[in-house]
Amino acid sequence: MDFAGAYSPDNLKFLLDGLYITLIVAFVSIIFSFVIGCIIGVIRYSKVPVLSPVMFVLVELVRNLPLLLIIFFIRFALPEVGIKMGLITAAIVALTIFEAAMIAEIVRGGLTSVDKGQIEAARSSGLSNIQTLWHIVLPQGLRRMVPPLVSQFISLLKDTSLAVIISLPELMHNANIVIGHEYSYAIPTLLLVAVVYFLVNYLLSVLSRRLETKMV
Prior knowledge:
Blueprint: H1 3-6, H2 9-46, H3 51-63, H4 67-77, H5 87-112, H6 116-124, H7 129-159, H8 171-181, H9 186-215
Helix pairs in contact: 2-3, 2-5, 2-8, 3-5, 4-5, 5-7, 6-7, 7-9, 8-9
């Protein structure tokens, strides 16, 4: 184990570059998957004719496919039909598709958990379906969605490491290169990567608990 060599300035900078790519891919994927997942979840909850069954099929299809397969498909299959993407874009698209399907189910479940009595009371008071959804269902459902949503975001952050398979220069990819240069760097490098992942995910967990407390 060569801690001094593994933690040389050049290696640390290289690993930080990988962390930067990991965070960028995760952040953009979280934003897009959250927006798309919310839209799909609301459509499914509202049982919109035609759209809701279509969304159900798409969500179930994506949820039951391995993320690695989706990454491979986006990166290697789509170019065969003329759709080419860079490494970062391909990773973001694959993660967004996969996570949006998961988030859609979280959103639908959160909305469905709201007491039907409150919905009926809102409707009887003259609120429209959209007004009831916006003022009654969403605020209460969102509180219940926070813990599973944050858990899903943490999973997304960790799932960025799967993009190593397409040589995305993220944290795990760069760690593998450092280890490849000198095998004695393996344990120090992997320990550092583990600490980094833990700290980032722990901070997300703390943030979610504070957000949940404020929303109660």
